[in-house]
Amino acid sequence: MKQLNVAQYLKPRYLKNPIVLGTFFLTFAGLLTKLIGFFYRIFLSRIFKEEGLGIIGLIAPVSVLVHSICAAGIQSAITRYVAASHASYAPHAKQEKKSAHAYGYLFTGIAMALTLSSLTAYLVFTNAAFISRTIIGEPRCTPLLQISALSFPLASLHSCINGFFYGLKKASVPASSMIIEQLTRVFTVYVLYSMFLRLGAKMSLSFVCLGMFAGEFVSASFSSFMLFIMSKDSDGGAGASLSLKKGKELLMLAFPISLNRICISLLSTVETLQLPKMLISSGLASSTALSVYGVFSGMAFPLIMFPSAVTGAASSLLMPSVSEAQAANNKRRIRHIFYAALGICFALGVVCMFFFLLFANILGDILFHSEAAAAQIRALAFVCPFLYMSGTLASILHGLGKTGTTFVFNLLSISLRLGFVFFLVPSIGFSGYIYGILCSQIFLDLLIILALRRYIVYN
Q1: pTM of the full predicted structure?
Q2: Burial letters for 127-150: b for 16+ Cβ neighbours within 10 Å, e otherwise?
Q3: Which residues 6+ apart lie within 8 Å of 179 measured at CB?
Q4: In the 8-state DSSP scheme, what is residue 136?
Q5: pLDDT, tens digit, 9 for 90 and up, residues 98-129
Q6: Which of 138, 158, 193, 197 has its CA at 20 to 30 Å from residue 20's CA atom?
């Protein structure tokens, strides 16, 4: 019987594992960007107050929906096929052959994403007034949507290139682009604010979207430049071309992921638009209902999501690792990945839950000067253990190619939350929405664990 050599796990080369290093890069970038984002949101809350943050939050579902249609599924498909293309070849295969295969998936995916995003940007830009007035119900969103539409192709290009680097487990480029994007966004808005402050003019909500556009432009330019440098050094990159076969393969995997995101985005849009109405039904005034939603979307929930930078970084790199393990038929490795992801995410969630429960008042007062934010932070603390697990576990399912399963689970979860919005919020107010988030996250985690049960227990 082969003895376990414990010393091999203590060697310095173990720390060169691409998952470990990649998670470190993405975690650092995620924490830094979220930290910058916190100060940015505090800055915005001082200028626009709760109602302004609520208006900005109303256009978020549109941007998420466009990303779901144009880039989300294609990015995940690129990541999986780039990772699998390297694992499917024998170790002695030429690197040029592997690179050409990977670049073929990338360039084909970029062509698909840019076509979709350009068409969507045109439709949103020309119909912004109709979308704002009829669908969103807030005419002040019209210029915000028009500016946001300009960034759709840039965001799609950026996402595809990031998916390529994730597949190669080179997380330093996506991590750097995250930081560059956030810094550019904040710097742009701050410069515009300073200019208008000196002129004595009023700060416009459109400046927030201008900052988003600037961030996407700079980050997409940076990612493209890094891709050019890498392809220049690789003989396989120059020989890659668009491929109808690869396009079909990407589409087959991307379609369920995109359909998943689209349905979730549509339901989230319904949730975003109906939540203020249900709050009004519970007895709140219209402006108060919009302010409550602004506190949630612009203050409390982003704070709760701050620790997800760790789990989000791991999730981005778990999918290619699981895909490689599946391609090699290494079920033992998949099982180890599952246990590690489940344990770390749940433990992180429990620690964060107690932290937010103990310091909710301090955080709400110091960061936002808002008692309402403190109350929402305390209520959302119980969601942390289940919220942080769901994204990581879903990434494992995506790595196994079970994107359709993830779609059904997410659809059931958000439908459950919508039920709370329609039937419980009018009766007990915003607390009903908090209960809905908690129950839907627990439900989602249980479904994913059941789907992965074959990897939980040894057969």
Answers
A1: 0.69
A2: bbeebbeeebebeebbbbbbbbbb
A3: 29, 32, 33
A4: I
A5: 567 778 888 888 999 999 999 999 999 999 98
A6: 158
